[in-house]
Amino acid sequence: MSENVFITEERIEGDDDGPLAGRTVAVKDNISTAGVRTTCGSRMLEEYVPPYDATVVSRLKDAGATIVGKTNMDEFGMGSTTETSSFGPTDNPAAPGRVPGGSSGGSAAAVAAGEADLALGSDTGGSIRCPAAFCGVVGIKPTYGLVSRYGLVAYGNSLEQIGPFANSVEDAAQLLDVIAGDDEHDATTREPPRGSDGRTGDARETREPQLENGASYADAATGDVDGLQIGVPTELLEGADEGVVETFWDAIADLEDRGAEYHEVSLPSVEHAVEAYYVIAMSEASSNLARFDGVRYGHDADAEGNWNETFAQAREEGFGDEVKRRILLGTYALSAGYHDKYYKKAQDARAWVKQDFDEALEEADVLASPTMPVPPFERGKSLEDPLQMYLADANTVPVNLADLPAISVPAGETDGLPVGLQLVGPAFGEERLIRAASALE
Amino acid sequence: MTAQTVQQGDLVTVIGLEVHVQLETDTKIFCGCSTERTDEPNENVCPVCLGLPGALPVLNEAAVEAAVKIGKAIDADIPEETRFHRKNYYYPDLPKNFQITQYDEPICADGELEISVEGDRRTVTVERAHLEEDPGSLQHVGGGGGIDSAEYTLVDYNRAGTPLMEIVTAPDFRSPAEVRAFLAELEEVLEYLGVFDAERDGSLRIDANLSIIPAEEIDGEDTAEIGAEALAAANRTEVKNISSHKGAQKALAYEETRQKNAIQRGRAVEQETRHWDESRGITVSMRSKEEEKDYRYFEEADLPPLRVSGWKEEIAIPELPTARRERFEDEYGLSDEAASKLTSTKQVADFYEDVAGEYDPDLAATWVADNLLGELNYRDMEITAIEGRLEEVTRLVELVATDEITAKNARETVLRSMLDDGRTPDEVVAEEGLGKTGEDEVKRAVVEAVEENPDAVADYESGDDGAINFLVGQVMQKTGGSADPGDVNQLLRAELED
């Protein structure tokens, strides 16, 4: 296919019936599928076939979904363009010649191109929301702990969540209904909150039920925003592309027409969020990716020499440049003498970001911003300047630092290019986000 | 602490330990795989303990419970909640190339263990004890047999993920003998707690740091008061690959002598890691000029902190060896030596209490502490080897207590034969004809002996008390040795008085 959406096309049939019977789902290639290779977009895992299913994959099968393939992605999730994949770039079906965003670019493109009804991605610092915005589809990054990570090949394990893509908010919510919930294989998961409408606070401390018994996330896609208080963090509009900002305000005006109100809020800590995010994500990555040494699975360099040289050779050959850069920087940030200066400081900044969000969400039901400050990049441009690529994550990474849920929903176009609007809610406030986002459809 | 006084020119040995203990749980610390030993490599493995991409650890609370028991036994501080860190380093036996362990908040801190060395009681400080996962095991094949010299190396992940407790002591030891006493006591406590199986190969692994400090560097006269500065100034060696208390004493005695010799000859002791070669009985240099390792510790986000503040109260531990020893002395009137022997393992102590509950505690002590343990020790056996036959030993004590056989026969014939040929006491007694001769038969033999030996009787009556021994011998001969010599003696005297 022209867009290079899949790394591996393979039909995996689920149960005969269930809420997703008859629906096709594309799965990001960092989510383990038993018997079907799971490459993470890396040469390192080109031939790796997991012996087990990720929890979300088991749940898809139980729900009757048909998996149609494993989608292209930035290598190990490290990128915002899907161009660091060792299986070649993916084109943007909504803006040909442009990147689909990343790192879950293949999943967003699969939905945008109609290759699958639904898709799963993972979001460590925006990897669901960025490609959703760039491809003009809906993407949800759940609260940390709502969806099991068992079987998701870790990049930044304290930050990431698996989440859905779809062409409508309701469809995305329906997929979230299937994958959400406590898992005995992931000690960080929580029972999906059933009850009221969400609450501010640390996701990891929140245990109160929030969705009403029997209610589903899909049921929340009512488009009812009457009385909704929207906070707009001014910091997340600064430096954004003019056309993007214009499209954003048009969308806010639409919500106002339907009974919502907005006010500006401030998140002073977010100016440090990108630095903090990259220090934490890279530090965790340097440890999470240490296991790829060619001994039990993955690229075997077939090198002569002692074990140390063999490990080094496997990693030299198996990893791409961006992955090596992040492993090196992460190793540095955790090293004795630098740990306090980088890693510890980043953790302090993370706590500050969380606090800012909590405070802003005390005065607003949701926070709104452009998902990405820019429209989709032209292909081939971003790899030249990694720092510019990192800065494009300014609006998405703070949400991961705060463990909060967020949704990206199409807000319109600028110069014919898709623009996404991001809504951020309190911990386990997915229902509220789904209700608000559905008003923009 | 010992309060030995030291002289100028003396060299004082300072030793600290890091003891790795495998905790006895049914399943591994972060997955549901069995910890059962198996000969088939890589049999008890799953995505988690193989470190497959995407697998996540889930904490086995049984390991935490075992750690809390240890903490209570050594009177350690147990924090409100316990959390885990990653220790990052590359090694072929480490599935994830990091080890999940504990760092700044260990499950146990600042505990102590009382030991007895040559009759002196001492207290050793346990600075910390923390939980971690065991790596896999390596088998080097061909070539030089080491990791860098073998033709190839095989990895077995059966061991990977076995729960470990690393117990770190203060540098409180002043001799290898003290180290041995500590390890023996520690093992005893762990076995009492039911968290450790000493007979499992590799269940106890010891790293020891040893330095030699000139006496004049010591503040005051007490060798216990070694300042941190003096300790830091001395080069120390870390001795690895020690796997038993006996081994620890041998390895450290070797290392102590090696360092003292170097110092006395004016040579510097190098700061290095040395490997204890058990078969050759020496330590050999592994790495010298050791670089400070940087493990890049950071929090393991996949394991949320576990609140254990209430566990210390909720978890009960059994009576520990020291308390039990003291109770044995009080309750059964035993000597310190007998009480120590009888509390050396929980099984021995439990067995003693069973026997002492039914028969005379002194007789029970003689039988369990001296006869049984003595004969077992002679055969290099542990009480666990006859675990299923303890009732037979009780039966043997009963035969003695009820005077059905003599103590001598019970010990020298029945017990030995039980251990050597596996016969039951009743079988041995019946087959060897050891049943005590009936009283009438003994009496008859006494009368006969008196009648047949008028000379001896005359000697006895004229005041030669030694003559009675000759008569006892005659009676024993007639009864084939199955009569009790004490009884015979009394019966003879009674007969001669008439």
Task: Give structural notes.
The complex is a heterodimer of chains A (441) and B (498). Chain A is α/β, with parallel strands linked by helices and 441 residues long. Chain A has helices spanning 55-62, 105-112, 129-135, 169-179, 242-257, 273-288, 307-318, 321-334, 340-360, 386-391, 397-401, 430-438; strands at 6-13, 24-28, 66-71, 118-123, 138-141, 161-166, 229-233, 261-265, 366-370, 406-414, 417-424. In chain A, 30% of the residues lie in helices and 15% in strands. Helix content of chain B is 39%, strand content 19%. In chain B, helix 9 crosses helix 11. Chain B is an alpha+beta fold and 498 residues long.
How is this structure best summarized?
With 441 residues, chain A is an alpha/beta fold. Chain A has twelve helices and eleven strands.
Q: Major sheet of chain A, described briefly?
A: 11 strands, mixed
**Beta-strand percentage of chain B?**
15-25%
Give me the side-by-side strand order of the main sheet of chain A. 1-3-2-4-6-5-10-11-9-7-8
| Rg from alpha-carbon coordinates of chain A | 20 Å
Alpha-beta classification of chain B: alpha+beta
User: Helix segment count of chain B?
Assistant: 16
Low-pLDDT residue spans of chain A:
195-210
Name of the CATH class of chain A:
Alpha Beta
Order of helices and strands of chain A: EEHEHEHEEHEHEHHHHEHHEEH
**Broad structural category of chain A:** alpha/beta
Number of domains of chain A: 1
Average pLDDT score of chain A: 93
In the CATH hierarchy, what is the superfamily of chain A? Amidase signature (AS) domain
Query: How far apart lie the N and C ends of chain A?
Result: 29 Å
